[in-house]
Design goal:
- The complex is a heterodimer of chains A (about 80) and B (about 575).
- Chain A has about 80 residues and is mainly alpha-helical.
- Chain A has one domain.
- Chain A has 3 helices and 2 strands; from the N terminus they run ααββα.
- A two-stranded antiparallel sheet of chain A has the order 1-2.
- In chain A, a hairpin with a 2-residue loop joins β1 and β2.
- The longest helix of chain A has about 35 residues.
- Chain A starts with a helix and ends in a 5-residue tail after the last helix.
- The termini of chain B are far apart.
- Chain B has 2 domains: about 500 residues, Sodium/glucose cotransporter, CATH 1.20.1730; about 35 residues, no CATH class.
- By secondary structure, chain B is mostly helical.
- The chains are: A mainly alpha (about 80), B mainly alpha (about 575).
Amino acid sequence: MKNTDKAKLYWRKNIKYVLILLSIWFLVSYGAGILFKDALNEIKLGGFKLGFWFAQQGSMYIFVILIFVYVRLMNKLDKTYGYDN
Amino acid sequence: MTISLNLIEVISVQKWTYILVGITFALYIGIAIWSRASSTKDFYVAGGSVSPWANGMATAADWMSAASFISMAGIISFAGYDGAVYLMGWTGGYVLLALLLAPYLRKFGKFTVPDFIGDRYYSNSARIVAVFCALLISFTYVAGQMRGVGIVFSRFLEVDINTGVIIGMLIVLFYAVLGGMKGITYTQVAQYCVLIFAFMVPAIFISIQMTGNPIPQIGFGSELSDGSGTYLLDKLDGLSTELGFAEYTEGSKSLIDVFAITLALMVGTAGLPHVIVRFFTVKRVKDARKSAGIALLLIVILYSTAPAVAVFARTNLIETVSNKAYADVPEWFKKWETTGLITFTDKNNDGLIQYVADKETNELVVDRDIMVLANPEIAKLPNWVIALVAAGGLAAALSTAAGLLLVISASVSHDLIKKVIDPDISEKNELIAARISAVGAVCVAGYFGINPPGFVAAVVALAFGLAAASFFPAIILGVFYKRMNKEGAIAGMLVGIFTMLLYMMKYKLGWFDDVVPNKSEWWFGISPEGFGSIAMLLNFSVSIIIMKFTKAPPKEVQDLVEDIRIPSSAGSAAKH
């Protein structure tokens, strides 16, 4: 595989990961926390209405998880493509 | 044991404050002496050798300002659900940073954001526009921090606000000028520990008191510990509606505005130069990604506690004052009344405190900062906990101020002097220039702290809008769109930042009319705080349209873009 092809393939995989993770990022914050808040508020999680919980708690936890998932995915990808030195 | 416990209780709040603030300040100065900068690389990016954990802690302290520490929980406690814009906005930006910016800027491997803009857009005009944006954003932000330092000093140590600002200036001056980024990074690591401890201790105490659960994040969704079986949030919703306020968990902002503000804050966070520059300090690209994750984790510890503190404090406040006789109010009420942060006017002369939503009959005005500052007293916590809050507030304000001052001094000594005015300047002289600019920046910040222009407080929140409108699109396009050229980027940044400035002047400061225009005149119903998202979209569109009609960037710039997309050999900062 030529170096430029390898770089292109690596970049395309990276973009795919980013798009998937950012869709989740959007869904939990703008989706569950804002746009669908009222519908989710019908469901209760202990004393929390679910929409409120996503807006003030849940989306933040998921943000942290998203970054660490990205770190793992990219470390693996770097290794596969030999970019990890 | 009982004797020493009694002793601890006897020491007054003020003595405790002196002790704790004194110890933490000595610690910061000690660290500064230990980590002096000896080269420009030390001064700008701490030698490029900070570990991901240290950088994560430093980033978290850098990020969490006096506003996060002192004001945020208070804002949430008055805004209810709407407070989510700050919680999501100021954390979600780190996902953008980790996925879209930090790794590539680290690979690029220079010292500042204008470095990237200037090199990627092969033009000193682009560099100068970037310096202008960086200075505008950082100065609006830092003035608020110095003011915050002054306020904490004056409330807890009973010195005058201006004396407080000057003490703060001297401390920051000492470690920022001596240590540069290296000194700042390691003091910020210590400051993170101080501020998170100071924030969590009262929160955990109060959570146990009110709900029996030591974890505040769970506590505020639990049943009250008084055996009534009512959920705390249901009780607060009830109390709020009883007094005529909006239901706490519902909020009152329009959907589109909540959406726009959250977006502007997220994108603005990812575009703030003092945050971005932290990712130049780690060794490798993978460390940049990892330390963004660590930073967010450490930030979320405080940010997920803040809404719990907001609920505890709001419930406590209403229960303590609403319809109670003014003659019987607890001591903290009188104490904070003298600072002007609580004001009570007995409008109907019944001797009772009417705290209601209706402005005509409401008799109590409470400054939102009280919710964190007085919270330990309201909850009757021991004196040392109250003093701890002062040390934490100072750590938060000082760490952010230092980070901003570094961006300002690097913009002047590196981006303007080294890159534009005198490219042949020696390393030694550049380091001297950097130190002098840091001194200058501290003085300007201190001046604004002592003589705050009326608009500073209003403008600090808008620094995010400015960052969203200028840097974010320019950096994203620079990495992800190889065809983007200098004409597009410069036009985009200028149109973005000036549209944001004009909107802010008209709708926030009211400079073009006799009064600040009414909400109904906002474009698309979007507040000045949320307008950064519109200005950002405008920047993107202008950049792309102008690019379509102008020349593609030269081959070597396109190669540079290819290069920063690949993580290996990230050590180019060393070759700088």
